[in-house]
Amino acid sequence: MLAPLNPADPGFARDPYPYYAHLRSRGPAVRVPLANGTHAWLVTGHRQAREVLADPRFSNVPPQGAGRPKQDSPAQRARGCLARHMLNSDAPDHTRLRRLTTAAFTPRRVDALRPRIERLTDGLLTELSGRLAREGTADLVDHFAFPLPVLVIGEVLGVPEVDRADLRTWTYRVGSPADALEDGAADDAWTRLHAYFTELIATKRDAPGDDLFSTLVHDADEGGLDDGELLAMAFLLLFAGYETTMNLLASAALLLLTHPQELADAQQGGPGHWAAVTEEVLRHASPLEGTTWRRTTEAVDLGGGTVVPAGASVLVVLAAAGRDPEYFPDPDAFRPARHRSGGERPAPHLAFGHGPHFCLGSRLARLEAAVALPRLFAALPDLRLAADPETLPYRPGLLVRGPRTLPVRSG
Ligand code: HEM
């Protein structure tokens, strides 16, 4: 019998890997009791993760009633809107939404964001250096890893510069743990985001900009997304794009600060070495611990005597798939060299998912890391951790993983 899994346990949040290794040794999918009294099937092997994510019998549509607003308040309605996005849909709905969005997210459009991402990064680094000089320490999550992705999504959505500070504040509030804010602050932020995005769509319709979101709004007028879908898309881009990238940047900074030789190699090696660092961070510290929940539409035989019954909740644990020793020798070691040309040529990691819902923003996320990481360590060559890495708090839960704070000092 497995003991109930408590995703809120700080020890588990910081280091869930031994538990996942144990599950992997028990079979392709294991039914795990959760501390809230429910059960879930967890998939921890690399091969099985790919199979499940490509299999249409594992549906992304939440069960009827899930995610519906419990009371009819503006904040609950805003949350309800978000639930209509494409990550919560299956083919053929998903195929249509995905096709329309992919048309806006072309590699050329994403790559064209580079100079703006460089400018935003440099702006944040100037502020961060000033803060370090004034105060001696700073939190790299609050002052770098969090604001950069939010500002970049602001570019994608075409949010005018004057409104970026608001976007940052509201996003911070809706993403904060409930006990970290004063009463009503999170609800207020949800309502404001909802009103803001509604107005943004109307503005883009009247006066499209050169941002990706304007392309989507324009395509909507040509028979694409309806207004509700556009609103859900704005929320999805914000939420899919910020916390994930924030965790990538924060975990990368932490791993490099605790592996000085790997940092020195990247600094001497140039862009190819930095790209290998990013891939290794994605594998070793998957920013999404699990995918979104899947639900079986019928009983599925995964082999090895494991049959997942119909109607079961299934979580593909990407963090565990990245540490599968069958695919990644010495899986717990942080070793960017395995991704360099002439390296081990490991299997592709699954940090961006697999199959029809494969991350739409992977190119953008990699671009952000390619700009942000070398610039961070060039601007602050004497950056040091100002806390014991073993005591850093991690986000609780099974969906996202990354340090909540990363205190640093310079010199
Ligand atoms: C390091 C950063 C990121 C990681 C690790 C990541 C990871 C993922 C994963 C694993 C999925 C699939 C989830 C599932 O199957 O349940 C996904 C989907 C998605 N991601 Fe990302 N993501 C990142 C950044 C971004 C960015 C920057 C954007 C957009 C601006 C974005 C937009 C999306 C969207 C729209 C989907 C849904 C695709 C669909 O349903 O077809 N992501 N992401």
From TrEMBL:
- Recorded family membership: Belongs to the cytochrome P450 family.
The segment annotated Disordered runs over: 56-77
What keywords would UniProt list here?
Heme, Iron, Metal-binding, Monooxygenase, Oxidoreductase
GO: which molecular function terms?
Answer: heme binding; iron ion binding; monooxygenase activity; oxidoreductase activity, acting on paired donors, with incorporation or reduction of molecular oxygen
Q: What is this protein called?
A: Cytochrome P450
Q: Look up keyword Cell membrane and say if it applies.
A: no
- Which domain of life, per UniProt? Bacteria
- Organism equals Streptomyces morookaense
Task: Output the InterPro entries linked to this UniProt entry.
Answer: Cyt_P450, Cyt_P450_B, Cyt_P450_CS, Cyt_P450_sf
- Give the lineage: Bacteria, Bacillati, Actinomycetota, Actinomycetes, Kitasatosporales
